[in-house]
Every structure is written in C-alpha cells, then in structure tokens.
Design brief:
Layout (H helix, E strand, L loop, with lengths): L10 E4 L6 H31 L6 H29 L4 E3 H34 L4 H4 L2 H27 L8 E2 L6 H5 L7 H35 L3 H29 L8 H25 L2 H20 L1
Parallel strand pairs: 1-3
Antiparallel strand pairs: 1-2
C-alpha cells in the first residue's frame, strides 16, 4: 500500500461534525457564541483575580491558571472549527495538525494535573485550616502549577512524537472536527498497537495519578465534614468544594468516555459529541461554575467595577 508523508501530501482534511449546510451554519453561530463567552469569562476571571487583592489566595491562584488553560485549549480548537464550518475548505496542514494536537494535549494534561492540585488545596483548607497559610505557601503553589504544566508537556511530547513518525495511507481524511489522537491513528498503514500502548500509558498514568490524589483529598474532606456538628459549618465546608467537584465531574466524564474505553466501542457520533463538550463547552462552563456559586468572586467583581469607575471619574 502506497504511503504518503508531509512532503507528498502536505495537509489533512477535517470532515467536521456534519455535511448539512444548515447545520453547519447553526453550529457556527452556536460555537461562536460559546467561544465569545469563553474568552470573556476566562479573561474576566483572570483580570478580577489579578486586580482584587482580597483574592490573593492559593485557591484563586490555581483558578487563574485554570482559566488560562481553558482559554488556551479552547483557542487551539474552536477558531479552526469555526473556519471549517463557515468555508468549503477543510484543510489543515500536516504541521498545523500536529501542532494543534500537541497544544491540545499539553493544555488538557495540564488541566488534569491542576485539578488534582486544586483538590489538595481544598483538603488542606478544610482538614488543616490553622496550618493552611503555612502549608499552602506561595512556593508550594508555584511548584504545583509548574508541575502541572510539566506533566502536560511530558505527556503530549511522548504521545505526539510516537504518532508523527508513523507512515500514513492514501487517505488523508480525518473523521473528526479537529486533530485528535485516534482519528489520526486510523489513517496509518503501520501497526499502531505500540503507539496506542504509549498513548494509554501516558494518558492513564496522568489521569490515574490525578484521580488518586482527588479521591484521597475528598475522602479526607468528607471525613472532616462529617465530624462538624453544626449544619451551617457543614454547608460552608461543602460549598468550598462544590464548584470544583462539578467541574471535575464534567471534565473527567467526557474525557474518560472518549479516551479510556476500548477502541472496538468507538462511535464517531458519540465521540464527537463528547469531544465538543470537553474542547468547546467546558472551557465556557468553568468560569461560570466558579463565579456564579462564589460570593467572593461576585464581591470582587463589584469592587473592581467600583474601583475602575472611581479611576475614570478622577480622570
């Protein structure tokens, strides 16, 4: 079977979500609205946390990086998806495809690790409140964030390097709306068993480490909450974790459905719907989840608005 590489056929073709022109128009409007909310929500969250000194705590330090990661990997996927929906040309260059895959895996892996760091932060805040400022020092927070990015970097580097070296068949059509791992592997003429093992080892290791950390943290949190006698105390302790738990459940549910299941159960339609959630929808939901349920963020927003308004009046 004749194979091709980036020098012979320098591009892939992304099939997208649908062939219907009416559906493409509707999806383009929907995705554009979601992306605008994503950009405004995450940038707004970052600006509020940076401008309001009362949010200068480890929890909001992690939340700043979560917003940055959500904004980044949404920007890696959504603009190209919008361009493909609005134009008849659905090409993406060989280099562009693997760059998109690399950046997507980098930010997705970083988010998985960062979510476990946020769970540990909540564990210390609830189970060791008196020692919280000492344990969650700025040095430890920076180390946890740097470690999250490093894990994402190592994960995506080994995964992409194992895929990009494969020979590809005559077809250069990717049955997906972005350059994802398994739709690209499906184009290879070579046996991809070893590559899939590499993908599963790094992906499952990152996710398992994060899940173990979060499970241990929340079991300890649950044990501490049950020891609290007052109902108001239990509600206050639980409310500090509710937003994080909701975000984790949505993110892990969709990514786990897509990547941690046997390839025999692969379903193009179902996998694409799940992919839309964790690449396009979840980056929009996170700032809403963490702000709408958080009085501190709401109060900080009004303080920033008042401060900005006062500055404009002085000018």
């Amino acid at each position: 079977m004749r194979s091709w590489n980036s020098t012979k056929v320098p591009y892939f073709i992304l099939m997208g979500l649908t062939d219907s022109s009416e559906m493409q128009l509707a999806l383009s409007v929907l995705f554009l609205l979601i992306y605008l909310i994503t950009v405004l929500g995450n940038l707004g969250m970052i600006m509020i946390i940076c401008l309001d000194h009362q949010l200068n705590t480890p929890m909001y330090f992690f939340l700043t990086h979560l917003s940055f990661i959500d904004l980044s990997y949404s920007s890696v996927i959504t603009p190209k998806t919008l361009a493909n929906l609005l134009t008849s040309t659905k090409r993406i260059s060989f280099l562009g495809c693997f760059t998109q895959l690399y950046l997507f895996l980098l930010f997705a892996g970083s988010e998985i690790s960062l979510l476990s760091a946020m769970a540990y932060d909540r564990f210390v805040a609830i189970c060791n409140p008196l020692q919280y400022p000492v344990i969650m020092s700025s040095r430890l927070c920076r180390a946890l964030v740097a470690g999250s990015y490093m894990i994402g970097l190592v994960d995506c580097s080994f995964t992409v390097l194992s895929i990009v070296r494969l020979p590809f068949c005559n077809s250069n059509v990717i049955l997906h709306f972005f350059c994802d791992i398994f739709p690209i592997l499906a184009l290879s003429c070579h046996d991809t068993y070893t590559t899939q093992i590499v993908v599963y080892i790094f992906g499952s290791s990152t996710m398992s480490l994060s899940l173990i950390t979060m499970s241990w943290s929340y079991l300890s949190i649950l044990s501490s909450i049950l020891k609290i006698k007052s109902t108001s105390g239990k509600q206050k302790a639980f409310s500090t974790c509710a937003s994080h738990l909701l975000g984790v459940t949505i993110f892990y549910g969709t990514t786990g459905f897509t990547y941690l299941k046997p390839r025999k159960s692969y379903s193009l339609g179902k996998d694409q719907v799940a992919s839309v959630f964790y690449t396009i929808v979840i980056p929009m939901l996170n700032p809403l989840i963490y702000s709408l349920r958080n009085k501190e963020v709401k109060n900080a927003f009004f303080r920033v608005i008042q401060k900005t308004g006062g500055t404009w009046q002085l000018k």
